[in-house]
């Protein structure tokens, strides 16, 4: 089953995001730089998708390596139905 959430780290600057990526390339943590999700805002347009379970370890590595981050966010995925499914539901209800 897929999680209905994921976590991202945001940064004050692009330079901060790139430094974060460089440090974490040397670890066993899986991170991926990506645009900042629409649900949040940040000074920088980049964020890093990370494991929510590893928050404390990630924050410790940031502190140990003097990495400047903006914040750690948990993003809840919206469960939106597609136009097609909504259309079928409406059509079915109209025919009842």
UniProtKB/TrEMBL annotation:
Show the InterPro entries listed in the entry.
Se/S_carrier-like
Putative Se/S carrier protein-like domain span = 6-74
Source organism, top-level taxon? Bacteria
Q: What is this protein called?
A: DUF3343 domain-containing protein
Its ancestry begins with:
Bacteria, Bacillati, Bacillota, Tissierellia, Tissierellales
């Amino acid at each position: 089953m897929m999680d209905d959430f994921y976590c991202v780290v945001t940064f004050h600057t692009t330079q901060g995001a790139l430094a974060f990526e460089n440090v974490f390339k040397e670890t066993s943590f899986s991170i991926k730089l990506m645009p900042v999700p629409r649900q949040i805002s940040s000074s920088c347009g980049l964020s890093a998708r990370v494991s929510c379970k590893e928050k404390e370890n990630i924050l410790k590595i940031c502190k140990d390596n003097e990495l400047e981050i903006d914040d750690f966010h948990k993003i809840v995925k919206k469960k939106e139905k597609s136009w097609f499914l909504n259309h079928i539901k409406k059509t079915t209800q109209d025919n009842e």
